[in-house]
Specification:
alpha/beta, Rossmann fold, 2 domains, five-stranded parallel sheet, elongated
Length: 261
Amino acid sequence: MMSHPLYPKLRQLKLSGILNTLDVRVSQAVDQQLAPLEFLALLLDDELERRSQQRQVLMLSQSGCDNNKTLAHFDFSAAPGINRTLIQDLASCVFIQRHENLLLCGPTGVGKSHLANAIAIEALRRDFKVVTKPTYHLLRDLQIARANGTYSRNLARILACDLLVLDDFGLQSISPQAAQDLYEIITERYEQGSMIITSNRAFEEWGEIFANDLLASAALDRLTHHSHTLVIRGDSFRQRNRRKDIASIKSTSEAPLNQES
């Protein structure tokens, strides 16, 4: 590609990617007798598609999302209590356009984090800016950023994204300063940006996370306003699979051995 006579000029114009499909498009133009403008349009469409794919890859890497945890990989048959229609509606990401929140609650291992990540992936596919992290890690990173002078930049990124996913909300205790940071994030994003929060704590316990009744009341009032709530019940996927594995091993060990006559 670098030896192509057009490479220096295309590189100067930051269009060197056109060379990836140029020969194919030239052959297509000759075979189909395309007009010059049609040929140029094909090359520009290729370049736009390449840039879109590159942008998607970059946004995914910066978001913190797991590309393997999508809706296609979620086993709805193992979670019959989940309203699949509601999940599909949320995956359209209209709630993000409306600056609404999604609260996913339930015991450990029922698929909360997977669903949150899957919806975040759908948001990325629609060019929404996404940040996803375990709540404790995000607050810890902000504390580190405050110490090294990057707090404002890190907080600005959290506040500016279209969708903020806080996983395992309330799983670990947080410091008073972290509680203040969490309150600021919730307050600043109120009616400005969407949040998805997963938690294995009951709603009435959420106030304990802040260890400050007044702060908790103000934060939760904003968090639960304009929100969709999904409470997932059932057994842990991991424990269910573990029981299946044990049953399979037990069944195999108990099977009679074939004996030669």
